[in-house]
Design brief:
Layout lengths: L1 E3 L4 E2 L3 H15 L5 E9 L2 E9 L5 E2 L5 H12 L9 E4 L4 E4 L3 E2 L13 E2 L7 H10 L5 E6 L2 H13 L12 E8 L2 E8 L1 H8 L1
Helix pairs in contact: 1-2
Length: about 200
């Protein structure tokens, strides 16, 4: 499947992101990687449909009545987004992206030449990356890729603090770094030898 068009992204400052992370956590009470918010116009009002996705892309049950509260939080934090269409919110990075339509690869040759195909954002399984790094303590492990270098760099910082990335808690258990790999923005993580020694003591 391939995404069509260039996605429009919106970001918020770190304080707003942290506030959203806290409030969404209180509403949903489960780990969520992405929230897709879609407006449905019914009579003279807008009804919001919220789809919650876990890191493994499975659907997370939506608490009763939470869609309206989630919509209020995200529309308030991103007032300049086009809320007449679906938007995808990345809970980890704090980036809101206009939802992209996915087209089967077999149909790509039927699209007009002017249409640009771009890769959809990949999700990183941080729990898996943390476990692999823990087993290979002291060795840098490739966690995954980010679309933008800034997102990879921000994630590298959060690996070390565990902020928004609980798989790397407690703070100081892991190191993170962003680097290019095959022209892509990669995130590497390493379980620190010092923490391993403390744990064994």
């Amino acid at each position: 499947m391939t995404s069509i068009g260039t996605p429009v992204e919106h970001t918020v400052d770190l304080d707003t992101h942290a506030d959203l992370y806290r409030q969404l956590g209180q509403l949903i009470r489960r780990r969520v990687a992405e929230i897709r918010l879609t407006p449905q116009h019914w009579q003279d009002r807008t009804v919001w449909c919220a789809l919650l996705l876990a890191p493994d892309r499975s659907e997370v049950p939506l608490p009763q009545g939470a869609a309206a509260d989630i919509a209020a939080l995200l529309t308030g934090a991103f007032p300049h987004a086009r809320w007449d269409r679906a938007q995808d919110y990345d809970v980890e990075t704090g980036v809101l992206t206009e939802h992209q339509v996915h087209v089967p690869a077999a149909l790509m040759d039927q699209l007009p030449d002017r249409v640009m195909a771009v890769r959809s954002r990949a999700f990183i399984d941080h729990e898996n990356a943390a476990a692999r790094a823990r087993r290979a303590a002291g060795t840098w492990v490739l966690a995954g890729f980010y679309k933008h270098v800034g997102h990879a760099e921000r994630a590298a910082i959060r690996v070390e603090t565990g902020e928004f990335l609980p798989a790397y808690l407690p703070p100081g258990s892991y190191e993170g770094k962003a680097a290019l790999f095959d022209g892509r923005n990669a995130l590497y993580v390493r379980h620190t030898s010092a923490h391993t020694a403390r744990s064994a003591a």
